[in-house]
Amino acid sequence: MASKRFALxxxxxxxxxxATLDAQQSTTxxxxxxxRFYPDDPLWADDDMxxxxxxxxxxxxxxxxFVHNTFARRALPGPSVNINTLGEVPxxxxxxxxxxxxxxxIDEILRGPDTIDxxxxxxxxxxxxxxxxxxxxxxIRDSNGVxxxxxxxxxxxxxxxxxxxxxxxxxxxxxxxxxxEDFIASLDPRQLRVAKGARIKSTDGGERPMTIADVxxxxxxxxxxxxxxxxxxxxxxVPGKVVGSFRFTGTRPDDPNDIHPHDMRRxxxxxxxxxxxxxxxxxxxxxxxxxxxEDNGRRYVRHYLQDFGSVxxxxxxxxxxPRGGYEYLIExxxxxxxxxxxxxxxxxxxxxxxxxxxxxxxxxxxVFNPASxxxxxxxxxxxxxxxxxxxxxARIAARFTDDIIRAIVAEGKLSSAEAAAELxxxxxxxxxxxxxxxxxGVNPLDSFEVRQGNHGxxxxxxxxxxxxxxxxxxxxxxxxxxxxxxxxxxxxxxxDVEEYSEPVSWIPATGFGAADPxxxxxxxxxxxxxxxxxxxxxAPVRVTLRDRGGVIDIxxxxxRAGAGAVSTNNE
Amino acid sequence: xxxxxxxxxxxxxxxxxxxxxATVAAQSTDDQAGRAxxxxxxxxxxxxNLSVPTRSFTERVLHWYDDGESRLSWRGLHVNLGNFxxxxxxxxxxxxxxxxxxxxxxxPLQANRIDLNVSAxxxxxxxxxxxxxxxxxxxxxxxxxxxxxxxDDKMPQEDxxxxxxxxxxxxxxxxxxxxxxxxxxxxxxxxxxVVIGGAVAYLTPVLGRGTDTRFPSIEAGFDGESAPGLAxxxxxxxxxxxxxxxxxxxxxxxxxxxxxxxxxxxxDGQGDNRTDFRRVDVHLQQxxxxxxxxxxxxxxxxxxxxxADSLARVPVIYMPAVGGATTLRSxxxxxxxxxxxxxxxxxxxxxxxxxxxxxxxxxxxxxMHNVSDIEWRSFATAYGIGFxxxxxxxxxxxxxxxxxxxxxxxxxxFSYGF
Lengths: 571, 418
Fold this sequence. Notes:
The structure holds 2 protein chains of 2 kinds.
Chain A: H1 2-32, H2 62-71, H3 106-111, E1 124-128, E2 137-141, E3 147-152, H4 160-175, E4 182-187, E5 192-194, E6 199-201, E7 207-209, H5 212-219, E8 230-236, E9 241-242, H6 266-269, H7 271-277, E10 288-295, E11 298-305, H8 332-340, H9 380-384, H10 387-398, H11 402-411, H12 417-438, E12 445-453, E13 456-463, H13 464-467, E14 476-484, E15 491-493, E16 498-500, E17 504-506, E18 521-530, E19 541-548, E20 551-558
Parallel strand pairs in A: 1-5
Antiparallel strand pairs in A: 1-2, 2-3, 3-8, 4-8, 6-7, 9-10, 10-11, 12-13, 13-17, 14-15, 14-16, 14-18, 18-19, 19-20
Helix pairs in contact in A: 4-11, 7-10, 7-12, 10-12, 11-12
Chain B: H1 3-15, H2 35-47, H3 57-66, E1 73-74, E2 77-81, E3 91-98, E4 113-123, E5 128-137, E6 144-160, E7 173-191, E8 194-209, E9 236-246, E10 257-269, E11 277-290, E12 292-307, E13 321-322, E14 336-337, E15 340-353, E16 356-368, E17 380-390, E18 395-404, E19 407-413
Helix pairs in contact in B: 1-2
């Protein structure tokens, strides 16, 4: 124990030293150039797909991931850094803005990442049997030569894992993450052949050639559909060379494109909101994958989320454990409380009631609490998430309409219409809960727009909490304006505080600051929202307007003043 | 890459973060410089300081563990810990297990699957066990399992206190029991919850001088009359028949349901019918959820009843007994022996952690010569608390801390036992 403490102390000291260097370097840079905005702001694409040399394979130990994240303590890293001046996440090898920034047709959402229609009919050659993970699976090459991972449902709960994996894939893709192409397919055991040279782990720990008897054995207890086929999930092998999974802290030291610490990436921190929504309690590094791809002549590392077999009510090989999503595997204070209260203290998840429909597993929406939702063990990016990250994610989650969710659930091809309807209801109710919780964490002013009013330009906006039906209208907005000198960062007040009951403010068109070398002038609106029920809304949203030759656009939206660290409700 | 260089690059990256309005861009002072250019510069700078990913010592160790190279087994050979009765002391040994012999894969439902287990172990108190077992599972594809076992035990320090509920603690002696048993058994599950079983066993018990230096050997305080079998035992053929009904949701970590079983046995002393007897064991277990499955009341009752011809005597080693890990837990294993025994347990169980149940229990037990001799006031009692380590559905280990009139007794176990 003493040596462990000593090691932790060493780590803490080293981390603190690095942080100090960060601060010193930042000061130095600031002295050279204090410019707040650049001509190309806001940036909507972060070009991290530059051509790079091959990177090493970096496989993460699942035990280390668990032990390190459960027992090592670390400081929260500060706000997200990979955002543009509007607080949005630019497109990158990690994330592509989709439903959050534009309308998508239901067909487009259902198509998701798919570039083909699934495994081609004809003979499927079994080429291997991966040992990673707990889901029973094997790899095949279809008659077109495309490789798929075939994942099997729990024999006693048909449709459970395959349906949720497909549903989650479509949702995560529409959000913007990179995910594999997944299909629900029907497998006829007669169409399987074993590829020449395919090998398998033998019962004595060695390796031996794979035989068709092995394949039959894997399938013999799988329930048959009416036509004798077996329902499976076919996940297309991701393109490129697999180089491991990504970690939710730090960066890859051999990837020059990877410069933003992963626990400071908004899309990885905001993933917590989506994971809570879909009960993706297995959202750990092991369920990500990095591949070194070649794309339009450039070679770089692409980052996937994958393996959604343990989301919603599924635990991959069984129904989700009732604890899943509510409690880490190890929480000393809860164990202590559990021991000492002689069973009088009951955890929330012990009160959950689940549907009797087996294909839904253990998923519900009544006891679900977005604030206290948890992964299997502590997740560094989720712990680092702040209210601004949550607001970003909640806005995207809110874009999934009931119709979209209904259509996605239908893609899961549950044979019971009752189960599909129930799952749709649960996902909708959970969506409402995550949106309701995270949209109000910061001053939720949104949809800023400059328009020409009767007496000059006006800034209009809305309150996302009202727009999404989380609360009724009734607050007031206090706005003050400052001229910004972009080169020095100095702001000079050009107006008194004005209070409106409507989300609109006149723009003092003569109040823009001095032109910067690009000729642009800047004006900052500081807007507070008064609502006694939400004191955090008094923290201002700062909206920066830019005037370029008489054309005014919005170049900055900053909610950080109100984006404190997120506390987890530990019941 | 040095830590200083890494910190420098991190600082630049954070400083030129794609756009937080409160942060600034990198070194460029070009008037038309852009955010994208600043990020590109940061990437170029990192490209000059690349290094391959490295693993800490802890991570290397846990990788080794994940890869399965740390297992104490090799091609079916494995290390055994424990596996002896209570009081044997710390024990260890080696075993060999091969499942589904002749098949390239292990399938629990495979017809005529053959499993083999061979083991040898020894404890620090001189207990020794050699054992071999062959199981034929799913015979002809039916829900029938057959097993043949051979076991040779040397148990040099077994305890005996005399016969009857009033056997005094200070009469404790030790004896040696060596026995080589061969048994053939079958189990048929005509329905999911119904078990019908049977067995034939050939037993060769030998009672002898105990080696526990703290207590006298058995012959110092007892004779063939007060300790039947001490004067010599024949070999036995035991025939069992069992009927059970089990509707628990898990056989080793039940949260609801019940298990009721009756086993009738006939012991035939070979060449000495003075030791023939019959024995019936009744086992009742009921788990009652209290509101939900995370809080339960478990009730257990066990009764063992022997019946012998007037001249025949039941050897002490086969007598019903109470005391030990599953009955009267604050008393020594086999503390009370007689021709009949009854024991009861009530356990309040609650889930303290998803992998740990805590329990509060009370045990009561009594032995008697005839069932009609039972006296409610004569029950010995034990009470205590315990902990059950389990996976989501199966028992892993238990620790019971039991108290009673003969003191405190901690009991660590690795088998469910009920």
